[in-house]
Amino acid sequence: MPSLFIDTERLRDLNSGLGQVCLHLGHELVRQCPNQWQLTFLVPKGKSGIFGDSVKYVEASWQRKLGIAGRYDVWHCLHQDSSYLPFPLLNGSAQLVLTIHDLNFLERSDYSATKKAQKLARLQQKTDRASALTTISDYTASVVKEHLRISSSKPIRVIYNGVAADLNEAPIELPDSLLHSIADSPFFLFLGVIHPKKNVHTLLPLLEAFPDYQLVLAGPDGHSYAQHIREQAQKLGVANRLLMPGAVDEATKRWLYAHCEAFLFPSLSEGFGLPVVEAMTFGKPVFMANLTSLPEVGGKEAYYFENFEPESMAKIIHDGLHDFGHNPLRAERMKRRATEFSWSNAAKAYWEVYEEVV
């Protein structure tokens, strides 16, 4: 009976992108599991049982980083920064499958050249060790090939992330935390970590061009960049129409998608761009940067910023909203585009990889 070990330790933060990947892909891998396979999930403390009783669990701890006992035929690291790898003495026969989401650290201005080189060297060691490599977009695959030495005998397979099939099906109510903040005003939405690479400061001048709108920047805001955003909003005189609720739960996220006038995503660097697909699932007009993986995900249904000058961005949004409002089929095409990214398809592709390496 072949055995598969899957690192879903990032379930510790279910409101993060990686947390959602672990949750939804994990459930779908279990649903599609061939009868002869035995699955074991690495999970955070207290999450044993999250994928049902038909699989086994190992709870993550700092001691377990030193080695996880047990024989596994395939070991899947769902992201490239995992600290949990098969140790030769404990599980040396395991075939490592490594999923690389991005090499965004190469674009970070707050990282020194030495730090970038060190991270790249560690990732090179992991890719050398892996039996199979997957990425979440063609763009990420191209960056990996540019910066890492990849053997011709180890082709990179692109497996897109998915979006929850029932994301927009359940009844969605306004969370109390936002009830008095948003009221009846139309609003633009950004969802993601508030970090310089997300480039959200470029959205603040749009509140001057759209005086009847609010702007909601939802996502973890522990970085100093978040305070910079608040200060800039004060200087521009638009702080009263800027909402930054921090990290939001799934119910709040769904409400925001369902009720926003448009989704804005000026990110400078993405390995995939899951919030874009989620917004498209709700049939919302999506305006985003024409950079990295984003055109690959948004396709011809999204609207793209030509640059980040306020006047240009405002015109793209103004014209796009007019186009969207006068084209009743545009929303349905958005939703249809989103269905191309499913966890069912992703799990099917991963099972093909597992079968190949075993």
Tell me the CATH architecture of the largest domain. Answer: 3-Layer(aba) Sandwich
Give the amount of beta strand, in percent. Answer: 15-25%
E-strand count: 13
- In whole angstroms, how far apart are the ends? 11 Å
Provide the CATH superfamily of the largest domain: Glycogen Phosphorylase B
Shape: globular
The CATH class of the largest domain: Alpha Beta
- State the secondary-structure class: alpha/beta
Radius of gyration: 21 Å
Largest sheet properties: 7 strands, parallel
**Helix-strand pattern:** EHEEEHEHEHEHEHEHEHEHEHEHHH
The stretches of 5 or more residues where confidence is low (pLDDT under 50) are: none
Going across the major beta sheet, what is the strand order? 3-2-1-4-5-6-7
Helix content: 25-40%
Could you characterize what this model shows?
The chain has 13 helices and 13 strands. The strands form two sheets. Strands 3-2-1-4-5-6-7 form a seven-stranded parallel sheet, sandwiched between helices. Strands 10-9-8-11-12-13 form a six-stranded parallel sheet, with helices on both faces. The protein is of the alpha/beta class. β9, α7 (224-236) and β10 form a beta-alpha-beta unit. α1 packs across α13 (343-357) and α9 crosses α12 (330-338). The protein has two domains: 3-162 and 342-357, Glycogen Phosphorylase B (Rossmann fold, 3-Layer(aba) Sandwich), CATH 3.40.50.2000; 176-338, Glycogen Phosphorylase B (Rossmann fold). The longest helix is centred in the middle third of the chain and has 17 residues, at 113-129.
